Amino acid sequence: MSVKIRLTKIGRHKDPFFRIVAIDSRTARDGKPVEQIGYLDPAKGIESAVINEELALKWLNLGAIPSDTVKAVFSKKGLMAKYAESKKPAEKAEKKAAKKPAAKKTTAKAKKAE
């Protein structure tokens, strides 16, 4: 199941209001979400968006892909920077594990030289 973080519309005609939800990518725009993360009123602007940071970071760490609009909202709120910071220590640990020193091979010539 591929999970996306995207908007679902709950406002009426010419008065939009959106929920920010984690949802299966195959589900319709207004389908049943897996979890609600926050909401956005575009009339008030991106700054007024209410987001549960803990849930947003949880879904990002689980591999959910944010839509372009949600990514812009998260960036404005500073969540994408927090997500990038949370990934750095894990990436460093993976690189260290991959860079194990190779064992020295001893050849017959090396043994004679000793």
Describe this entry's structure for a reader.
The protein has 114 residues and is of the alpha+beta class. The protein has one domain (3-90): S16 Ribosomal Protein, Chain: A, CATH 3.30.1320. It has helices spanning 53-61, 68-77, 79-98, 108-113, and strands at residues 3-9, 18-24, 35-40, 50-51, 65-66. A five-stranded mixed β-sheet has the order 4-3-2-1-5. A hairpin with an 8-residue loop joins β1 (3-9) and β2 (18-24). The model has no long low-confidence stretch (mean pLDDT 85).
Topology:
Elements (H helix, E strand, L loop, with lengths): L2 E7 L8 E7 L10 E6 L9 E2 L1 H9 L3 E2 L1 H10 L1 H20 L9 H6 L1
Parallel strand pairs: 1-5
Antiparallel strand pairs: 1-2, 2-3, 3-4
Helix pairs in contact: 1-3
